[in-house]
Amino acid sequence: MFRRYFIAVGLLAAAAGFCQAAEPAPRTVLVLGDSLSAEYGLKRGSGWVALLEQRLAGEKKTVKIINASISGDTTFGGRSRLPALLAQHRPTHVIIELGGNDALRGLALANTEDNLAWMTQAAQKAGARVLLLGMQMPPNYGLDYANRFAALFRNVARTHKAALVPFFLHGVADGPDTVRLFQADRIHPNEQAQPILLDNVWPELKKLIS
């Protein structure tokens, strides 16, 4: 009788250990961005990153979101901050939403591409999967410049096998009613635009975290 009891206990323990081992590792998504992700001019909790947290909770996905976005940040700023963020949070996924301020400040495109590539590689070496959020410039910057700027996100994603959202502001900056979706400065999307931004990010991110 006692022998059967110990065998039963052993089987239960083994089953419990198997179930515990089968549980997925906790996932942490680090968002490294600028004002577009830092809720600039918005009510706290209404930006697309906050909406992402709500969507993940609604889908019963246990994912921790770390929003390390800073208004006005450039790819150089992100590159400077990323190592400490990786060491502190040990993310499983990194979303890089940077580059727009580089173009607005007229910084060299080669430097922007190099910084994005460096951040992508650093995150991957730390064990994280990377999602790049591409940006585009208005036509008044010149067609050649606009094309080269949009292409650098594709180049980095292709070279380093990272996921890519080709244009983060799709449906907002290139839609039929752009005025309605921007704040008074005509630069930052308003609260109405935030669900659209999330919908642009979600398909690619969902594939990565699933």
Mean pLDDT: 90
What is the CATH domain class? Alpha Beta
CATH superfamily: SGNH hydrolase
How many helical elements? 7
Level of helix content? 40-55%
One letter per element, helices H and strands E, the order comes to HEHEHEHHEHEH
* Quantity of strands, as a count: 5
As laid out across the biggest beta sheet, the strand order is: 2-1-3-4-5
- Rg value: 21 Å
Q: Given the C-alpha coordinates, what overall shape results?
A: globular
Question: What's the CATH topology name?
Answer: Rossmann fold
Largest sheet: 5 strands, parallel
Quick rundown:
Helix 2 (48-58) packs across helix 7 (194-209), helix 3 packs parallel to helix 5 (109-125) and helix 5 packs parallel to helix 6. By secondary structure, the protein is of the alpha/beta class.
Write the SSE topology:
Layout lengths: L1 H21 L4 E7 L14 H11 L4 E5 L7 H15 L3 E5 L2 H5 L4 H17 L3 E5 L9 H18 L2 E3 L28 H16 L1
Parallel strand pairs: 1-2, 1-3, 3-4, 4-5
Give an account of the 3D structure.
The chain has 210 residues and is an alpha/beta fold. It has seven helices and five strands. It has helices at 2-22, 48-58, 75-89, 100-104, 109-125, 143-160, 194-209, and strands spanning 27-33, 63-67, 93-97, 129-133, 163-165.
Provide key terms for this protein.
12% strand, Rossmann fold, alpha/beta, 210 residues, single chain, 7 helices
